[in-house]
Design brief:
A hairpin with a 7-residue loop joins strand 11 and strand 12. An 8-stranded mixed beta sheet has the order 3-6-2-1-9-11-12-10, with helices on both faces. The protein has a 6-stranded antiparallel beta sheet with strand order 14-15-13-16-18-17. The protein is an alpha/beta fold. The structure holds aspartic acid and magnesium ion. The site of aspartic acid has 12 residues, from loops. The site of magnesium ion has 3 residues, from loops.
């Protein structure tokens, strides 16, 4: 059996934890399995490297940032190989260049295109544990790229798909996917099984357990994922196409505080204006989330939308620079907002789900300022200060507790 095991930054944060991971992987290896380990940078290394870069040059180029960030994962994999060697187990560390993990060229947000499996296969045939750097790739210019924050999950899934692994385990500091963040909602429950689609909606709605791109890729290639704790041997959560456990109406609730609302006020109420506004953002790679347009009056209207807080400065600058062309009279924004989302395939066939959510919020005296939906998700925008309270209220409102 071929297994891919991915460990996040906290799981390899120090010597003791590195050996803990090493021993865990040796267990699998000694059962006769082929083992590939994917690692993130130790602890908060990536943040620390970004901080260093900002200190030297706040406008560092994305190419150089990737050159810097890829060192973090390289430290983890080499130390892991040394730990395994000290336990007398043959192992080899490889970075994205050595494996040849090809990505698109966009630094800081690259996507995998093709992964060579020859080198890894060769090392596995020699009965070595192969340890691969997460989060990184190489582009057509032979430059390093990174996959976006949290991207090591995607590396693990991509390797599992490319090598037709029998199992892909994502080890993290929580015991699996929960019905809500257990640090905020004390009675949140671990989910046994969840579909790719639900997991994808949760991951994009602020549940931090899996990189959303990794779920997308797992679905595309049918890679079954197991999310479990690196600290204990609990079962964890299985992410797959069809789940067999009885479906709850709602699978989970998530909050995303990293969001900001922008309003463009008094734009002309005629065809083409919305297109121009959103096209300006799209051309600059800014993802827009909830959109709300007011009813026209006196030939003008207002449009509000949300963007990630990381994109707020760029968004405001673009709106300001194009104020005249976009016929904007006034630009307003608010960073103190949060999105609360409920996700569940059960809502496809059950009316009243939105009403239950709004009732729970109303009972807690929480005001909703924007709403958006997909087939299996409902998202509301609220005051950021109410986010934790809302998470608990909605979770209880659907009876998701243990
Ligand atoms: N080290 C990278 C990050 O902190 C990638 C990862 O952890 O998955 O975002
Ligand atoms: Mg992560």
């Amino acid at each position: 059996m071929l297994v891919v095991k991915k460990f996040g930054g906290t799981s390899v944060a120090n010597k003791e934890r590195i050996f803990n991971v090493a021993r865990r992987c040796i267990e699998d290896y000694q059962k006769g399995n082929d083992v590939i380990i994917v690692l993130s940078a130790m602890g908060d290394t990536t943040d620390a490297l970004l901080e260093k870069a900002r200190d030297i040059n706040p406008n560092a180029s994305k190419r150089e940032l990737d050159m810097l960030l890829t060192t973090g994962e390289q430290v983890s994999v080499s130390l892991m190989a040394m730990a395994l060697h000290s336990l007398n187990v043959p192992a080899i560390s490889l970075n994205a260049f050595q494996v040849q993990m090809h990505t698109t060229s966009r630094n800081g947000n690259a996507r995998f295109k093709r992964i060579d499996s020859d080198r890894i296969r060769h090392e596995l045939e020699n009965r070595k544990i192969v340890i691969v750097t997460g989060f990184q790739g190489v582009n057509k210019y032979d430059d390093y790229t990174t996959l976006g924050r949290g991207g090591s999950d995607t590396t693990a899934v991509a390797l599992a798909a490319a090598l037709h692994a029998d199992r892909c385990e994502i080890f993290t500091d929580v015991e699996g996917v929960f019905t809500a963040d257990p640090r905020v909602v004390k009675n949140a429950r671990k989910i046994e099984e969840i579909t790719y689609d639900e997991m994808l909606e949760l991951a994009t709605s602020g549940a931090r357990v899996l990189h959303n791109r990794s779920v997308e890729m797992a679905k595309k290639y049918g890679v079954e994922l197991v999310v479990r704790s690196s600290m204990n041997t609990e079962e964890g959560t299985v992410v797959k196409e069809v789940v067999k456990v009885e479906k709850m109406l709602i699978t989970g609730v998530a909050a995303d505080k990293n969001t900001a609302r922008v309003s463009v006020i008094g734009v002309e109420d005629r065809p083409g204006i919305a297109f121009k506004i959103f096209n300006t953002l799209a051309k600059n790679n800014i993802n827009v989330d909830i959109i709300l347009q007011s009813v026209g009056r006196g030939g003008t209207k207002d449009i509000s939308f949300t963007v990630s807080e990381d994109d707020l400065d760029d968004t405001l600058r673009l709106m300001e620079e194009n104020k005249e062309a976009l016929t904007i009279k006034e630009i307003a924004h608010n960073e103190n907002v949060a999105k609360i989302s409920i996700v569940g395939a059960g809502m496809l066939s059950n009316p009243g789900v939105a009403a239950t959510m709004f009732e729970a919020l109303c009972n807690s005296n929480i005001n909703i300022s924007m709403i958006s939906t997909s087939e299996i998700r409902i998202t509301v925008l609220i005051d950021e200060k109410d986010a934790d309270k809302a998470l608990v209220a909605v979770h209880d409102g659907f009876g998701l507790e243990d």
